[in-house]
Amino acid sequence: MKTAFKVSSIFVRSVCLLHIVHEFFYEFTETKGESMIPTINARNDYVHVSKRYKNGKNVKLGDCIVAIKPTDPKQRVCKRITGLENDIILVDPSICNSNELKKYNNTTVSDVNYCFNSFIKVPKGHVWLTGDNLNHSIDSRSYNVVSMGLIVGKIYGANDFNKGSWRDLFGFRFIRNTLEREPDE
User: Which top EC class applies here (predicted)?
Assistant: First the structure.
């Protein structure tokens, strides 16, 4: 009886510790979908998420984050921050390269104005999120600005278990901020 109590106690404490680590420090989760290709694969990619950036704390333009989906709180999204508070954002830059404008032999001034007339100013406490694969991403262009309170954490690495082995840490790679300027050398 004493041994069973001791084992149960260790199990309960371990589960509590795991929950605290998952909730406040670190998360390792699978991603699905094509919205972040080529940064994150469509299938079987697992991301490392630092919870130090929860609620948008210290996030920067270009960071890849995990957030609660504004239109469905049971889902999470992996996106890149492409606008911070007070930034003025062109709502859908992908339309400028779309077939809608290419189908015209002579693009007129009104076509160009249509392409560049939909702007939004990101309000305080919010961010603008987009996927790296704009043609296959449901993001702020669909659900508008996202409250920083919905940010779960920042993605700093990913594992591709299809390609990796234990020798290369199961396909581990760092996720870079592609919008951040490199320091001049």
Answer: hydrolase
